[in-house]
Every structure is written in C-alpha cells, then in structure tokens.
Design brief:
This protein has three helices and 16 strands. By secondary structure, the protein is α+β, with helices and mostly antiparallel strands. It has two domains: 102 residues, Immunoglobulin-like (Sandwich); 54 residues, Ribosomal Protein L24e, Chain: T.
Amino acid sequence: MSGDVLVVDLAGFGAIGAILWYFFLSRRPDEAAAETTGGIQEVHVTVKGGYSPDRILARPGVPIRLHFDRQEESPCSEEIVFPDFGVRRSLPAFATTTIDLPAKPSGSYSFACGMDMLHGTLVVGEGAGAARGSEPVPEPSETDPICGMNVRPERAAATSERDGSTYYFCSVGCKERFDAGQPARPVAPGEQRVSLGVRPPPQR
C-alpha cells in the first residue's frame, strides 16, 4: 500500500515540476519587430496568459501603434499599463484594443498588466537595454489590504482612505469590498502601508 502511495506522490511531484518548467523556466522572450506603414510602426500582440510577443522592437522617433488581441477573461489581463507613456487602458475580453504611443528616443520601456503580474518590454533603437542599464531599479510597492497582492502606487487600480491611511488596490473589486467594510489584512513584516501626507495617491 505504501509503495502505491509513493508512486502516486512521485507522479504528482513530476507533474508539478513539468508545469513549473513549462510556465516559468522554459519560457523565453517572444520577440517581434514593428512594421512601419504610413509613418506609424504597428505590432499585433496576443494576450492570453501573457503577452505574445512580450518584447517589441521599434525604431526611435516614429509613433507606435499596438493592437492587443485579448483572448481570455482572466482578471489579471483586463488592464494594461505603460508607465513611461502615462497610459492605462482596459482590454475587453475577446476583442482587439488599439493603443497609440508617441515617438520615443532609444531606450527600454516596460509595460504590464494592472496587477503587475504580466510583463513586456518595448525596445526602441538598437542596444536600448544597455543604454538604460541592464539591472532594473526596484520600485516601491504597497500591499492590497484585501487580497494581499503587491501593488505599485502609480499603477494602482484604485485607492481608499481609512483611519488616516491611504490604501492601494490591484482591482476595483478589492476596493469595493474594502469600502463596504471588510477589515484590512494585518500588516505583515516587510509590508508597507502609507499614511496620509507621506505619499499621495497616484494622480488619475
């Protein structure tokens, strides 16, 4: 009997390992170069469990038009944020959303979902990553008091104030539950919760 249990356990661990390898370790950046038509660079991006391509190459000094085809209903991918462009847009499920970005100088410009779980990079010009530095600079983050997810203040989907503190949320749903009276999660060691006057909520 114990031998059968051992076989089942080993099979389970093997399946978990295969899943982790496929989704996290074996994936390489999916790269595509923008095509210029009528003075605008265009790229089509599929949104399904991530961005494909998730690395977009473009020329400096030319406007960029991105077409995001969202082929899922996962709440994680319902928004997309381009912090360097000041752009935050909703991506309706099973529809294509077009986002126009102005011309930018050479550099690497990140984009991500509203929950900051899906990531991509817009690389403008050759060697853009080296020009901006190969090591990313850590950005401050807060903790959603409802679900516990890390949220960058400038990318928060919503904010609320309670007991003299500002709270940041990964989604409008978490804010609504919080505003309805659901207690905030206890602050764990290393988490941050911002008091009013220390850091203002992100501008909309």
